[in-house]
Amino acid sequence: MQMHKSTFKIRKKFDQYFLKDKNIAKKIVKNLSFQNYDAVVEIGPGLGILTQYLLNLYCRHQVFLIEIDRELISFLKKNFPISKNRIIHKDFLKWNPEEMNLHNFAIIGNFPYGISSQIIFHILKYNQYIPECIGMFQKELAKRITSHEGEKNYGILSVLVQTFYDVKYLFTVKKQVFFPIPNVKSAVISFKKKNEILSCNKDLLFKCVKTAFNQRRKKLKNSLKLFNHISNFYQIPFLNKRAEELSVKEFLQLTKEIEIRR
Ligand code: SAH
Q1: What gap in Å lies between CA 160 and CA 184, rounded to an integer?
Q2: What domains are there in the chain, each with its CATH number?
């Protein structure tokens, strides 16, 4: 199963840092709740260190792998023949689950760090189909996703992910367990769909949160000036607070208040 390092070209442009430690791989996979989903989709399986545990622990016919590197695709097909028809050569950012008729699936992966934020936005785009996600991120990004109001790392990703998911920082992973060794530490976090998601206009929420955090230290009445033409703008609650102080729930309320005045 091992692919010798010298026979394989590591592609920096695809952010390839392969996990070497099997215990960590097992620990990541075991964090999935293994509920009755249509599928588990692994993003960037690489040499398949997570994949082997996934196939052991989950119904193997429901494991889908999405990998961008052609060379890794042939490696994976050779090593996981059982999954041959479910190994997809594709850029995850261009993948649309609707095309495969997947409407209830979990996501797992040691994500390519350079595009992790974009991966999250792609997950959020299809969040209604994705009840759960376990992912390895750069530690700093993992902290941002799991922070709460008033904390240093609280920002756009914290609010947007936590609107739809309960998030949990699971554990930190040191650099030395990868080859090549990256410059930064990593961390594994989980997203589980909230029992109750307050309904609001998703596009408007994204716009409010992004605009508010562009000037995170300004009061919302100033940072959200773009909306001040709407009727009774100044009666909206929270305008004297700053983005960094506003909870996820308050952001949702704020969005609703803007929505009804438009
Ligand atoms: N999961 C493996 C590899 C992690 S490295 C492990 O833990 O060892 C990141 C992986 O994501 C690489 O295999 C890389 O080729 C793949 N990748 C990078 N960009 C991608 C994209 N846009 N879509 C799908 N896979 C991608």
Answers
A1: 24
A2: 12-193 (3.40.50.150), 202-261 (1.10.8.100)
